[in-house]
UniProtKB/TrEMBL annotation:
Its EC number is 1.2.1.38. This is N-acetyl-gamma-glutamyl-phosphate reductase. It comes from the Bacteria. Keywords: Amino-acid biosynthesis, Arginine biosynthesis, Cytoplasm, NADP, Oxidoreductase. The lineage of its organism: Bacteria, Pseudomonadati, Chlorobiota, Chlorobiia, Chlorobiales. SUPFAM superfamilies: Glyceraldehyde-3-phosphate dehydrogenase-like, C-terminal domain, NAD(P)-binding Rossmann-fold domains. Pfam families: Semialdhyde_dh (PF01118), Semialdhyde_dhC_1 (PF22698). Pathway: Amino-acid biosynthesis; L-arginine biosynthesis; N(2)-acetyl-L-ornithine from L-glutamate: step 3/4. The gene is argC. One of its GO terms (cellular component) is cytoplasm. It comes from Chlorobaculum parvum (strain DSM 263 / NCIMB 8327). Belongs to the NAGSA dehydrogenase family. Type 1 subfamily. Catalyzes the NADPH-dependent reduction of N-acetyl-5-glutamyl phosphate to yield N-acetyl-L-glutamate 5-semialdehyde. Residues 9-140 form the Semialdehyde dehydrogenase NAD-binding domain.
Length: 338
């Protein structure tokens, strides 16, 4: 029996949050996956359908106490929690996809600076961005799923840094990225209530967002010793899902739109979930999908403007996790995602 014919069992730890629920929705329609258990300590004893009636699933939330019965484990937990659980799952020989930032960064000092806490990862899991590391993901058993802002920004910039275009050099990148409220998670917070956010928009974590070192690492440099100037301003707006990123890029020498479009088209030729758009993309174009849309333009001063749109809960979290799982287990990359 080959991998494509096998039915794999999967469990989700942290299944009551928005990303966890999105995972359940995708796994329920996957032909090669059987959901074995859902873990959510604060919701233990409740049926999944009590929290999410729109998603047909009859499982009851349990408390995770080190169970290792499933073939693959998804961890959709707050930052810091996976550090406690991943070592045991690795020791048990389980396949793992961690949706938190606990295992994304190679440099311990960057992890401590941007994530805080007194515990750092003892190992770095394979970074799970299929468009950049497909071959490595196929051979991996444990994946660190990219962050949502990081996904939208890295996919917008990667061809410039990894596309091999001779003479192309980036001097600076200035990013304004806007997220829907679901990006902050399901926990009740006064500042995210309807009365606070309706008709409102605001920046947050300016100058120290935890996805910054992840972005720089994927582009071949680091947040502490950057090879180009990088400024990121994350913002939150009163819509539910989606990330809209506007990247203003200063190139060291002029380039034509034809050459840039050719670079991007070639780089993503085999990427089923990245779409190079002719017009300006919008959040509504990608909502509830695993696509990342990319639009390109030049300003009058010669700076390159890249606009990307993703659904933060799908391509920015659960959908990318399933995409990674498909590659790990030998399924077609798009299974359950189109």
């Amino acid at each position: 029996m080959n991998q494509q014919q096998k039915t794999w069992t999967a469990s989700v730890i942290g299944a009551s949050g928005y990303s966890g629920a999105e995972l359940i929705k995708l796994l329920k329609r996957h032909p090669g996956i059987e959901i074995e258990a859902l873990y959510a300590h604060t919701q233990a004893g409740k049926h999944f359908s009590e929290l999410y009636p729109a998603i047909p699933c009859d499982k009851v939330f349990q408390t995770y106490e080190g169970q290792t019965d499933s073939d693959i484990y998804f961890l959709a937990l707050p930052h810091g929690e996976a550090l406690r659980l991943v070592p045991g799952l690795l020791a048990a020989g389980k396949k793992i996809i961690d949706l938190s930032g606990d295992y994304r960064l190679e440099k311990v000092d960057e992890h401590k600076h941007f994530y805080g806490g007194d515990k750092s990862p003892e190992a770095v899991l394979q970074y799970g961005m299929p468009e950049l590391f497909r071959d490595e993901i196929v051979k991996s058993t444990a994946i660190s799923n990219p962050g949502c802002y990081a996904t939208s920004i890295i996919l917008g910039l990667a061809p410039l840094f990894r596309g091999g275009m001779v003479g192309l050099e980036v001097e600076s990148v200035n990013v304004t990225a806007i997220s829907g409220i679901s990006g902050a998670g399901r926990s009740a917070k006064t500042e995210l209530s309807f009365s606070e956010m309706s008709g409102n928009m605001r920046a947050y974590k300016v100058g120290k967002h935890q996805h910054t070192p992840e972005i720089m690492q994927a582009l071949g440099t680091s947040a502490t010793e950057p090879s180009f100037r990088f400024v990121m301003t994350p913002m939150i707006a009163p819509y539910v899902r989606g990330i809209y990123s506007v990247l203003n890029v200063r190139l060291a020498s002029p380039a034509t739109m034809a050459s840039i479009r050719e670079l991007y088209a070639g780089f993503y030729a085999d990427a089923p979930f990245v779409r190079l758009r002719n017009g300006v993309t919008e959040v509504s174009h990608v909502a509830n999908t695993n696509f990342c849309d990319v639009s390109l333009a030049f300003e009058n001063d010669g700076s390159l403007v890249i606009i990307t749109a993703i659904d933060n809960l799908v391509k920015g979290a659960a959908g990318q996790a399933v995409q990674n799982m498909n590659l790990m287990l030998g399924f077609d990359e798009t299974t359950a995602l189109l």
